[in-house]
């Protein structure tokens, strides 16, 4: 077993504190990754503060960037010293149709998550990237794109792939008009991706002070979603609207903004039941869809695209011992746009 130091919560809602624990030695196809950076995701906050008590002690973190420190005997894709990234999925059945298509996030048997999951070999509970080292099957590790800031790549392993996949699926590109709802950790990456794909991109935001930043990141237009006149003027404009907001909000104004056959895709997860008029979908043959994370093929494609276009998350790098302050600020939405822990 490998001795590792990390930062763990020992009960739901408890502070995150230093914790020494053990990880497995690399199996034949495993690599050990010395963690340099790990993003702080909203799902980390939820797991730490409201997770299943049976999952504790809990080391969160599924946006990992680091250096290969050891390799198993049958590893073929990586060598010691390689710079790599690991996301929120670290295993799947590998045999179902979704897995064979490289869309392991929809594995029919369910995925093994980077933390809070159950290892498929020995039944142990997975612990995440708020730690000095992570051990993972090479199938679920990715070469770090050259030329990109490693800390800025970390959030791409969750927020990047979560927004990239639906943008690609619904044909974002030249001649298409795409709206991005929300300009937080997900939205600011989606904005850059859609712009790089060549679409006309419109940022919806409740914050007038984000208009200048939105244009800097690639928005062709900015709409204040709380301004009824501005929203009414968007009717029938959009081929795709990607909704990244995790707070409760009405969907009808965005459905009204869709063109005929347009799609409103949800990637944010509000804590509310969806309620809307059936006519808001029927009139104009509109579509309501959802997306979440991505498989190995999609994740690699996203990283390649970001490397080609110089896309990273806008980050605030914090030392690991300030993780609790970061979580408190994230709960208040006091970050532009992603916290990343420095674990080197």
Question: Would you kindly provide a written description of the structure presented here, covering whatever features stand out?
Answer:
The protein has 2 domains: 2-158 and 313-342, Medium-chain alcohol dehydrogenases, catalytic domain (Quinone Oxidoreductase, Chain A, domain 1, Alpha-Beta Complex), CATH 3.90.180.10; 159-290, Rossmann fold (3-Layer(aba) Sandwich), CATH 3.40.50. Helix content is 24%, strand content 28%. α4 crosses α5 and α4 packs across α10 (296-309). It starts with a strand and ends with a strand. Strands 3, 4, 5, 8, 9, 16 and 17 form a 7-stranded mixed beta sheet that branches. By secondary structure, it is of the alpha/beta class. It has helices at residues 42-50, 97-100, 150-153, 159-169, 187-196, 211-216, 228-232, 252-256, 279-282, 296-309, 323-331, and strands at 2-9, 16-23, 30-40, 64-71, 83-86, 89-91, 112-113, 133-137, 141-143, 177-181, 200-205, 221-224, 238-243, 258-266, 287-290, 315-319, 338-342. It has 11 helices and 17 strands.
């Amino acid at each position: 077993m490998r001795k590792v130091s990390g930062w763990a919560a020992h009960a739901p809602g408890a502070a995150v504190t230093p914790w020494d624990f053990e990880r497995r030695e690399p199996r034949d196809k495993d690599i050990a990754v010395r963690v340099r950076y790990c993003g702080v995701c909203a799902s980390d906050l939820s797991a730490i503060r409201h997770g299943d008590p049976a999952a504790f002690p809990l080391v969160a973190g599924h946006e990992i960037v680091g250096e290969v420190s050891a390799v198993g005997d049958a590893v073929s894709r990586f060598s010691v010293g390689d710079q790599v990234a690991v996301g929120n999925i670290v295993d799947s059945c590998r045999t179902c149709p979704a897995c064979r298509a490289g869309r392991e996030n929809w594995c029919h048997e369910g995925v093994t998550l980077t933390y809070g999951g159950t290892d498929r070999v020995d039944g142990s509970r997975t612990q995440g990237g708020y730690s000095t080292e992570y051990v993972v099957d090479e199938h679920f590790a990715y070469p770090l794109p050259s030329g990109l800031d490693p800390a800025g790549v970390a959030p791409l392993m969750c927020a990047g792939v979560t927004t990239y996949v639906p943008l690609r699926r619904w044909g974002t590109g030249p001649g298409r008009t795409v709206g991005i709802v929300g300009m937080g950790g997900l939205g600011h990456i989606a904005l850059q991706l859609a712009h790089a794909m060549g679409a006309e991109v419109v940022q919806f935001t409740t914050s007038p002070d984000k208009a200048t930043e939105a244009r800097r990141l690639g928005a062709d237009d900015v709409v204040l979603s709380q301004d009824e006149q501005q929203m009414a003027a968007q009717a029938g404009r959009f081929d795709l609207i990607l909704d990244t907001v995790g707070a409760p909000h009405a969907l009808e104004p965005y459905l009204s903004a869709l063109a005929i056959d347009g799609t409103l895709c949800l990637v944010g997860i509000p804590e509310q039941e969806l309620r809307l008029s059936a006519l808001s979908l029927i009139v104009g043959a509109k579509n309501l869809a959802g997306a979440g994370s991505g498989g190995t093929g999609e994740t690699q494609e996203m990283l390649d695209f970001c490397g080609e276009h110089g896309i990273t998350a806008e980050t605030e790098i914090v030392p690991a011992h300030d993780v609790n302050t970061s979580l408190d600020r994230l709960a208040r939405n006091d970050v532009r746009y992603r916290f990343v822990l420095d674990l080197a």
